[in-house]
Design a protein that fits this description.
The complex is a heterodimer of chains A (275) and B (142). By secondary structure, chain A is of the alpha+beta class. Chain A folds into three domains: 14-36 and 62-103, RNA polymerase II/Efflux pump adaptor protein, barrel-sandwich hybrid domain (OB fold (Dihydrolipoamide Acetyltransferase, E2P)), CATH 2.40.50.100; 113-190, Nucleic acid-binding proteins (OB fold (Dihydrolipoamide Acetyltransferase, E2P)); 196-272, Ribosomal Protein S8, Chain: A, domain 1 (2-Layer Sandwich). Chain A has helices at 2-14, 204-210, 216-222, 244-256, 262-274, and strands at 18-19, 27-28, 33-35, 65-67, 71-74, 77-80, 84-89, 99-103, 116-125, 128-132, 139-142, 162-169, 177-179, 191-192, 198-201, 227-231, 236-241. The model of chain B is unreliable at 80-85 (pLDDT under 50). Classes of the chains: A alpha+beta (275), B mainly alpha (142). Chain A: Belongs to the RRP40 family.
Chain lengths: 275, 142
Amino acid sequence: MAEAAAVVAESLAGYRARAARAVLEQVVLPGEELLLPGQEDGEGPGSAGERPLRLNAGARSGGRVVCGPGLRRCGDRLLVTKCGRLRHKEPGSGNGGGVYWVDSQQKRYVPVKGDHVIGIVTAKSGDIFKVDVGGSEPASLSYLSFEGATKRNRPNVQVGDLIYGQFVVANKDMEPEMVCIDSCGRANGMGVIGQDGLLFKVTLGLIRRLLAPDCEILQEVGKLYPLEIVFGMNGRIWVKAKTIQQTLILANILEACEHMTADQRKQIFSRLAES
Amino acid sequence: MQRGLDSETKKQLEEEEKKIISEEHWYLDLPELKEKESFIIEEQSFLLCEDLLYGRMSFRGFNPEVEKLMLQMNAKNKAEEVEEETVELDVSDEEMARRYETLVGTIGKKFAKKRDRANYEEDENGDIKPVKTKKMFLKPQD
């Protein structure tokens, strides 16, 4: 960590842009500029000041590059806007130059189109429900956006219900809108979440870690006892088990997973499995 | 005396009209800016970056519908549909064929005339026997 900090300080002091490839999996700070592959030629430590970038197509490698959360486009470079580790994903099907993003940590959710979130119905006004998703504004949910809902056949949604849905409109200029059906009109598990259970809040980074394809925490949790979990990308998790005690244990484990190392986790799970 | 306009004068008039109209159109008198072809796309969603699993999960049979959904949605994400497992049928093929066979009889009975209904006799089991061949008039052989 001290090494990384020293390098970063040097780079910021010299206002030199670094190559994105060289910084992968390292901590980046807001304000840094990153060069994409194909633009780093001649940008060695010996060159003083900024070199004019070459814009010809030959210098570019591959096609389009996607800059994900935490990065912005600044001319032909990437500008870092959040602090965290820089990550990269190679393109699967071969087109495009891959995705770069910053793996940052935050608790405040900003609505993003396509995200599946858990919302709490706060008001019912006419044909729309107002759903609190943890953002700056409550999202609006029309009563027709449920599977099998028609003007005569209204969905059974009350104030205070939990809703699992996805955003169709989510930008900084408009009120977010969410729906509980997909583009084909099927529910796919979205809609009102059932009775009982417990809703609690965690950081956004933990949700993404838990939803990663190779998450050990979930595999171990699943072996404990029958349970049901719903993850919302807005940092909310809803859990339900057969007894209240089991539900509370589960909630505590998931909240504590944020700060535990793998060994501590294994200890706790083994203790639980015994009891 | 020539009434009306010549085709040539007509054309000239039309051209003049067009000219006036196109001159009235506003345009920016700026030098053409070179469009920089940007090959960087900005996305704010984590869905593109990381392959995340489906958000609803159920373990050890707590909610069977959610478990079915989990298989469905995660398989879609990983594009495992190439394997194409055999779809579980609610009704087997043989039973379907049997029902269809009897169904043809019952529906056919509805549209048959009174005389033909006599052909639709019922078996001991209640299954409709296949329609007997109609007795046609046989010409006497001489």
